[in-house]
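Long-time lurker, first post. I've been practising inverse folding by hand and with some scripts of my own, and I keep getting stuck on stretches where the structure tokens seem ambiguous. Below is the full token string for one chain I'm working on. Before anyone asks, I'm not after the true native sequence, just a reasonable design that respects the backbone. If someone could post their per-position residues I'd love to compare against what I wrote down in my notebook.
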């Protein structure tokens, strides 16, 4: 396993990190299965575990907490807030009112007195940067969080938050967690350069593109992955962008074979090769998934292989632009761009 500094914090984290979104109802994972995944990950050298209050309505946090009982200090523990936690309109977002409550709930579910990294799961356009950063700074000073970061923020919002922290003498985001894979490279154009400019650690989620880069999705095969059951439209081959992804996967499989790698090793090695990236978040549901992904722990791609990947999917290109997750609200809601 390789280790890199998490931004400028001085904290060393593994280049593969365990994402716990599949713990609980989302991944149909039991406590014993989740604990086994945590055990194997720690044994392999992974030292960062990432979850969120929103994952299976808090069940993921509960499972992570039980799996880490007695060895909390062995890991860099990260969680997130802002996604809706029920129907109450104020049980979401990044206001001080909600973040204080959400963190207490997360600490209770995790069974800990602090988290190492507390992340704003999505940019909240209804809440000012000063409001959010002020609340996070106070929680940090109270010892309940060590650092805080953002997740899936547009590049301009990352910059605005850095400026707000400077102007109001507040602590700042030290990490960004974007979606990044060979098939979704749009963040290379703006988010990753901004992260480098401000010294942010980057924890890339969905490096296997929701299953597209696991080897399970190939031409001539029935698509029967866990993700295809949850998100059927993401694997509907009648859609042009999915056919484009399938074409890319077939070519990438050839690149991997020529390099003597699995497609998973190629995909994870690609993400961790970018100089802005601290680590890639893997989200296995089974021990078999975990083993296949841990095989990439020490993968280093040569320049020739990286050039071959560029020839399949050009730098800065998203093959499914509508799945970017950081699209400005005004592009999604016509009422926000019309008077």
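-- Answer (accepted) --
I ran through it position by position. Result:
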């Amino acid at each position: 396993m390789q280790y890199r500094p998490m931004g400028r914090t001085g904290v060393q984290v593994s280049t593969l990190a365990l994402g716990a979104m599949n713990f609980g109802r989302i991944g149909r994972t039991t406590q014993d299965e989740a604990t086994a995944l945590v055990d194997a990950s720690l044994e392999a050298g992974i030292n960062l575990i990432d979850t969120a209050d929103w994952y299976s309505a808090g069940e993921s946090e509960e499972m992570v907490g039980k799996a880490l009982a007695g060895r909390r200090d062995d890991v860099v523990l990260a969680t997130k807030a802002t996604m809706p936690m029920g129907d109450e309109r104020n049980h979401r977002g990044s206001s001080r009112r909600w973040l204080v409550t959400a963190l207490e709930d997360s600490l209770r579910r995790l069974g800990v007195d602090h988290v190492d990294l507390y992340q704003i799961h999505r940019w909240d356009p209804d809440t000012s940067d000063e409001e959010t950063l002020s609340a996070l700074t106070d929680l940090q000073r109270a010892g309940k969080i060590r650092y805080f970061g953002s997740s899936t923020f547009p590049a301009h919002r990352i910059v605005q938050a850095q400026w707000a922290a400077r102007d109001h003498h507040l602590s700042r985001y030290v990490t960004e967690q974007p979606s990044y894979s060979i098939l979704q490279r749009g963040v290379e154009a703006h988010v990753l350069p901004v992260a480098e400019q401000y010294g942010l650690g980057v924890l890339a989620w969905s490096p296997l593109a929701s299953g597209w880069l696991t080897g399970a999705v190939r031409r001539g095969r029935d698509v029967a992955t866990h993700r295809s059951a949850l998100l059927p439209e993401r694997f509907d081959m009648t859609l042009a962008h999915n056919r484009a992804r399938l074409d890319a996967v077939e070519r990438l499989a050839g690149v991997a074979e020529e390099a003597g790698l699995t497609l998973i090793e190629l995909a994870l090695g690609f993400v961790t090769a970018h100089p802005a990236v601290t680590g890639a978040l893997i989200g296995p549901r089974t021990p078999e998934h975990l083993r296949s992904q841990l095989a990439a722990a020490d993968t280093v791609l040569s320049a020739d292989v990286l050039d071959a990947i560029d020839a399949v999917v050009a730098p800065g290109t998203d093959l499914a632009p509508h799945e970017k997750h950081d699209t400005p609200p005004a592009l999604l809601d016509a009422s926000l761009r019309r008077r």
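A couple of notes from the structure itself: The mean pLDDT is 94. The CA atoms of residues 155 and 334 lie 22 Å apart. Happy to go over any region you disagree with.
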